[in-house]
Specification:
Blueprint: E1 2-11, H1 15-33, E2 35-41, H2 46-52, H3 58-65, E3 69-74, H4 90-100, E4 105-111, H5 124-127, E5 131-137, E6 147-156, E7 162-168, H6 174-189, E8 194-199, H7 205-221, E9 226-231, H8 232-241, E10 248-251, H9 253-266, E11 276-278, E12 284-285, H10 304-316, H11 321-336, H12 357-366
Parallel strand pairs: 1-2, 1-3, 3-12, 5-10, 8-9, 8-10
Antiparallel strand pairs: 4-5, 4-11, 6-7, 11-12
Helix pairs in contact: 1-10, 1-12, 6-7, 8-9, 10-11, 11-12
Bound molecules: nicotinamide-adenine-dinucleotide, 3-isopropylmalic acid (IPM) and manganese (II) ion.
Length: about 375
């Protein structure tokens, strides 16, 4: 029997609730295809800070590196929110594991499930046919640049003698842009053949370098792909103005973070947006949303972004396309039958069709 070792990182907030549903779906797939998934759970984020003092313990990194794939839920929460740069934060664990595993490509597919058309805040005719893929650079830019907070000897502070200063730096190297651009063009070739490269080249030097390199690669190696440049502020507007026009959207780390939450809302809820983080070694799969502290522990979180991340794991890490299709079909069927979690229910959803996290996971498994 084929065996895969999966590192599970439940993290914080709704994390443990939704990852349990992801595992349930994996097990259902394993039974159907006679594949064994072995799980090793490890600590990441706030729970890791509580138990070990650091958001990314070495042991977690070791388990992740030794596995065939990593399934992450979400990290963070008010308990660990601090503005003190000397205190650990859960998010450092997430950034750390992305960097350590070299996960420079983050794929965030934004596609409409027809049954959810009414759950979107946009008009049905605007979201009809939306099927886009955000290709977010994940290990560079502002998230990983030089940063500092210090007391400025020269400036007067608000409340007295010396004022504080802080900076974050946005830096990209040519090879970082080169490799993410290739990922975008390759993705476009398997889709509708169009790439929108998002930058702020009217202001930022990194964006000017970005644009030059994206075009050089395009002209030399991917002339068959249609390429357009779009400034990030305009993109934010066009995404809700004409979302169906986009195919592949490639952009730097922070622009991609912001635009993907915006794009998620087109599909009805952030609770629907899966993601795959890929590099040259072991890959990591996680919902695009966070730990949703406002609903943690209530059993009402939508597990579908996690389950759709499992679909991506089967497709990209295990070459189990048929099983991945099964998951997608099962999710589509459950939604077509009218089942909803709270975040995707509409004004006309009958109360007996609104289910919690566990029930939603069960419904998907039954249809695999
Ligand atoms: P969030 O994504 O956790 O929540 C935003 C809103 O969406 C909330 O109202 C929440 O209830 C809702 N939501 C999110 N996922 C949902 C789901 N599966 N089902 C139903 N509703 C869902 O963003 P936030 O509140 O800004 O951040 C909370 C914490 O999560 C912060 O500590 C943040 O740093 C962290 N975070 C972690 C990740 C990650 O681990 N990948 C991603 C984003 C945010
Ligand atoms: C995401 C999250 C993370 C990010 C945070 C929690 C560090 O918002 O995965 O989108 O900004 O990358
Ligand atoms: Mn985000």
């Amino acid at each position: 029997m084929k065996t895969y070792n999966i590192c599970l990182l439940p993290g914080d907030g709704i994390g443990p609730e939704i990852i349990a549903e992801g595992v349930k779906v994996l097990d259902a797939v394993g039974r159907k295809y006679d594949v064994a998934f072995n799980y090793t759970e490890a600590l990441l984020g706030g729970i890791a800070i509580d138990e070990t003092g650091t958001a990314l313990p070495q042991e977690t990194l070791d388990v992740a590196k030794a596995s065939d794939a990593v399934l992450l839920a979400a990290v963070g929460g008010p308990k660990w929110d601090t503005t003190d740069p000397n205190q650990p934060r859960p998010e450092q664990g997430l950034l750390g594991i992305r960097k350590e595993l070299g996960l420079y490509t983050n794929l965030r597919p934004v596609a409409i499930f027809n049954a959810l058309a009414s759950a979107s805040t946009l008009k049905p005719e605007i979201i009809d046919g939306v099927d886009l893929m955000i290709v977010r650079e994940l290990t560079g830019g502002l998230y990983f640049g030089m940063r500092e907070r210090f007391y400025d000897e020269e400036g007067a502070g608000v409340n007295g003698a010396n004022g504080q200063r802080a900076y974050d730096t946005l830096e990209y190297r040519e090879y970082e842009i080169d490799r993410i651009a290739r990922q975008a063009f390759e993705a476009a070739r398997k889709r509708r053949g169009k790439v929108t490269s998002v930058d702020k080249a009217n202001v930022l030097e990194t964006s000017r370098l970005w644009r030059e390199i994206v075009h050089a690669i395009h002209d030399a190696e991917y002339p068959d792909v249609e390429l357009e440049d779009l400034l990030v502020d305009n993109t934010a507007m066009q995404l809700i103005n004409r979302p169906a026009d986009f195919d592949v959207v490639v952009t730097e780390n922070m622009f991609g973070d912001i635009l993907s939450d915006e794009a998620a809302q087109i599909t009805g809820s952030l609770g629907m947006l899966a993601s795959a983080s890929l590099g040259d070694g072991v890959a990591l799969y996680e919902p695009s949303h966070g730990s949703a502290p406002d609903i943690a522990g209530l059993g009402v979180a939508n597990p579908l972004a996690q389950i759709l991340s499992v679909e991506m794991m089967l497709r990209y890490s295990f070459d189990m396309g048929a099983a991945a299709d099964d998951i997608h079909r099962a999710v589509t069927a459950v939604l077509d039958e009218g089942w909803r979690t709270g975040d995707i229910k509409g004004p006309d959803t009958p109360a007996d069709k609104v289910v919690g996290t566990v029930k939603m996971g069960d419904l998907v498994c039954e249809r695999i």
